[in-house]
Design brief:
Strand content: 15-25%
GO biological process, one term: methylation
Protein name: Methyltransferase type 11
Largest sheet: 7 strands, mixed
Number of domains: 1
Structural class: alpha/beta
InterPro entries: SAM-dependent_MTases_sf
Number of strands: 11
CATH architecture: 3-Layer(aba) Sandwich
Low-confidence stretches: none
Keywords: Methyltransferase, Transferase
GO molecular function: methyltransferase activity
Shape: globular
CATH class: Alpha Beta
Helix content: 25-40%
Mean pLDDT: 90
Bound molecules: zinc ion
Amino acid sequence: MKNLRCAICSEKTRTRLLYRANFDFEKLNEKTFSARRIPDNIHYQLNKCQNCGLIFSSPILAEKKIIRFYQKSKFTYEKEAVYLAQTYLSYLKTFRSNLSPKTKILDIGCGNGFFLSEIYKLGIKNVFGIEPSKEAVSKAAPYLKKNIKIDVLHKNIFPKSHFDIITSFQTLDHVVNPNEFVKIVYRMLKAEGIALFVVHDTNGLSVKLFGEKSPIFDIEHIYLFNKKTLAGIFRKNGFKKIKIFNVNNKYPLIYWLKMTPLPPILKNPLMTILVNLKLAKIPLSLAAGNIGIAAYK
Ligand SMILES: [Zn+2]
């Protein structure tokens, strides 16, 4: 087990216990680490920095163990990924309007390349990805696969000042050392380059409604941010011009239901009803408690 501290403040800041760990360490396996599985509400001990409000898991498993789980994890959100890619692309276009065929883009935690393939369709062929799950990368389109590194982000994975745009969606909350992560992103960006990240919001609706039962309090999440702490971690690691925004996610009704922390005895029949009434696929756009950051080098 490894103890963590607030990633933003000095080591001396006081933390408050938010929720106790609610699982048995012996029972962990790679299924626990598959993104977007039906939430089972297990989490480490959650702590809150009294100074800046950053929420973080501690103690946690050794980082090597966590990475090994991600390497073996399954890619299970193919259907939802189509919707995600459209949402993320609309934000990218908002903050970076001058996309050209020469633009060089990296997506960290790219899964099967669902976002990169949307970019590729725009005629931008310089698209690269980093993803630890072999299985996820095996599902990538053949034209993307050669540009995706099956790995986690580390210092020398790409050269300095290499990319115009670096995106990372729902990944920073999974990272054991977010300072190092953001620092490496800063280093890999060209001057005037932009980083576009999306993470869960600890001040979001799901936390207000469900408290400890919110799906964001999950064993996969190490550091959890709100608007202030998200800006804080980027500022601490070199970024000066920062814009924070609310993310509206557009998903089919069935997916919203799937992610709601209801007991299976209620959820499963409701899911069947949606399918039978042919309502399952109706898209619904909601601010589900995600926030984004556009940070310029
Ligand atoms: Zn703090």
